[in-house]
Amino acid sequence: MFGGLFALALLLIALASYMAVVSYARASVQKELQASASVFKRIWTLKSDALQTNAVLLSRDFGFKSALATHDTATVESAFDNLQGRLNIETGLIIGRDGQPMAGEQGSLGQTLAGALSRKDEFGAVNGIIAIDTHPYQAVAAPVMAPDRLGWVVFAQRLDDNEMQNLQGLSSIPIKAGILTQTRGGLWLGPQEQTRDYKPSSLSFFIDKSLQTKAASMVHSSRGTMIAVATPLPNLDSQQKSVLLLSYPLSSALKSYQPLLTALLAIGLFGLCMVVAASLYLARNLTRPILALKDAAFALRDGRPGQVRITTQDEMADLASAFNDMAVSIEDRERDITLLAKSDMATGLPNRSAFEDYIGGLRDKGIDSGVVVVCIGIDRYAHIRAVWGVSYAHTLIARLQDILVRIFANAYIARLSADTLGLCLHPCEVDQALPLARAIAARLDKRIKVTEDQSLDVMVSLGVYHMANARPTPDEMIERALIALDQARAAKTRIALFDPRIYSELADTLLLTDQLYAALASKALQVWYQPKFSYRESRIISVEALVRWNHAERGYVSPQRFVQIAEETGAIRDLTTQVLHTCIADQGRLKSAGFDLDISINYSGRLLSDEAYNAHALNICDQAVGQICLEITETAVIEDPRIGLAAINTFVDRGLEISIDDFGTGLSSLAYLKQIPAHELKIDRSFIMEIESGQRDALLVRSAIDLAHGLGMKVTAEGVETAAAFTLLQSMGCDIAQGYGIGKPMPFGDLILFLNDFSGMSETKTQMPTYRNRKAV
Amino acid sequence: MKYVFPVLAVLLFASAAAATAADLAVTVNNASGRPVAFAVVTWTPAGGAAIPAAEKGRAFVMAQKNVQFSPYVLAVPAGATVAFPNMDRVNHHVYSFSPAQPFQFPLYGKGKSRTMKFDHPGSVALGCNIHDSMSAYIRVVDTPYYATTGADGRVTLSVPEGAGSLAVWHPNQETPERQTAKNMTVGKANAVQTFSIKVRQVAPTAGQY
Predict the structure, then answer these.
(1) Which CATH fold topology does B51-142 show?
(2) B86 pLDDT exceeds 90?
(3) Which fold has domain A509-760?
(4) Between residues 113 and 152 of chain A, which touch chain B (CB distance below 8 Å)?
(5) A352 and A340 Cβ atoms separated by less than 8 Å
């Protein structure tokens, strides 16, 4: 590229030189032309002076005057002929007093001269060009004064090509001269032999321009470009205009500069060669090292070592050296960054990212079976860290790693999180995975010497994932081992192998959560009611609202499962709100159907601590036409007694009834039981189911009934299914029975039918009501 | 004696005419308004006028002095005789090729004179064969009423009342016959007649002008 630029510059210089030479040549030719014009005029003057001298001589001769005055034509002619012969004058004439030719030339030249001179009123000699049919003549006229003008003596010399060539011979350069005369039409014309090389129109244009600028310029001719200049000449006839056209071929002008141009060309070529050589030199000393640097930079970009070989001592070498330093420091920094990214700062152990890389590396080596991943969770790690300090905890982790390394020399061990170590072993058969985990547990569940003077009892849980045929990603493998660890902890089995079933259940729970949200949004959940039978009034006095979800694909979803999901995700608020609204609406419809029933609604313990929601629920319940009872588990209160009790008190103050649900299954505390201002105690079905066969259960139930009555609560027995249990409970003083024996949970439509049937029957207080269940639940 | 009566008649006529003569003032200017000298002003009555013998008999002189003719312009009535005395130390060869009166006096020296009678009206250009710069004019007029302007370009003619032609001739006037004329009638009192004529300023052979 540099070569190209230099070449261009050279070309421009050459062009400029050529232009300068042409311009100089033109200037010098112009000078020569102007000099020639001066010479021509000088010669002109000399010649016309010579002619004039002779003409004047004759015009002054007394005898000639006398003859002319007396119209002595013969004498005049003889005198003229005599002089013409003596002076070798080409042509001429004598014009008489009447203005007409008297002697000599009588033709058109004579007529033209006579005409021209008739317009002259001179007493002295005159001279100038006179052109006859474009042929120029040099003419001199001397008046014959006696002392008035008697006539003219005229001598003329034809300015033919010969004459012009004589003039051309006087110039130092071969100039071509011509005399042109302007016609009436404005066109400049001259003798054929002098103007045949030009186009008349362009030549005329050129002459007009040249007369204006008075400078030489270029004009095209059939013999190439000419440098020419036109100079005005005096005319004898004032009606004519003539010019002297001097021209010189441009090529001839340049010919003398040919050696100079050749020298320029040679210099140019030499310069071009130098440029090429310099470009090659530059390419080797500048371009090549730059390309090497470029390659090295690309190598560095791609993570390969990028070093440049230094061979010279110049600035390029300095640059290369600096580049090499940069490459080294980049590599160092990259190593540091990698180290930081792939290791646990506190212990220097590989971290989870490094662990993934290791497993990925195994996969890359084609090992995709017989790999076991064990996640070792240190139990109560947070406690250890709190008691012994952070650095102590880190030291413990490092110590455990030491132990593991000693057992499994070819295992890869990393710290997956603060309290979890990961161990990857290969090869390992699937049936060796659990024994391996047990061996690890056996080795680590010991008193571990953490520092020189301190030891600690460590308990670990292990999650094991063995990769056999499935192809999970390294991340998924670690995740599965961690899930197994969670499973082990949840199941308190210490060691658990990853269970794909549970794993898929977890996935399903996520799906189900989404579906639950959709069901809540579309109000697809239904509320069913289970009747509660009052022994004392011998009728159905109340129903318990139970939420049911009939999913299009899943069928009826277990309430335990979706209620748990709702509680965990917070959807329990929307769920409860919907149930409350439905129940209050249904209670109104029941009332208009003639049934005045209490409705019990399960109120999640999680909601008790949400005061805003409690207020919201209360506002809804205020719209109820009948009694609303909220069933709350005992446990919900015990978790946070202050808030729970406060909420319950508020409910009671607003006229709601409170029922203690599932009594007997949780951690029943008599202290709290005493504080809860409940109206009802519901004994869990597990006690009622066994009441007929188990003496102890019967005793417990009887005691619970007594206790509740003692605390001012009525008692509902759940799970009443048989007539024996029904009767037995009645005998124990139980107030209300609920269960399949009375009625299964049913949709609202069925409830109306059920209530109609039930009230139509004549019942005794001691008999289990019989009914037909209209619909299977 | 046979000429006596006509001469007497002329004299009588002239005297009769003179009895009713009036002054006619003429100013000759050039194109730029400057007075023109050497202009010959003539009055020719409509019926013509005889030139008295006394007038013809006056002495007219065209001298050569300092290699010049003097005066430059000499007006004479037809029939007058002009003397050409040579007052220079050199010889002169006076000639005229004018059709009105061609003549020549071959070389004659100092103190000598030649005479020539001019019978035909017209202008006669005089030259010297050996001195080209010498030039002069003799204007031969056909009327007794004529005068030549001086440097002030003015003349006053005493002419008979009546119609006639007033003319101004000048050797260098750029008109045919070098003359400008107009017809008019002269009364008892006459306004100054002004002529504005075109005169060529330079005459190479007449340096005296």
Answers:
(1) Immunoglobulin-like (2.60.40)
(2) yes
(3) TIM Barrel (3.20.20)
(4) 121, 123-124, 145-148, 150
(5) no
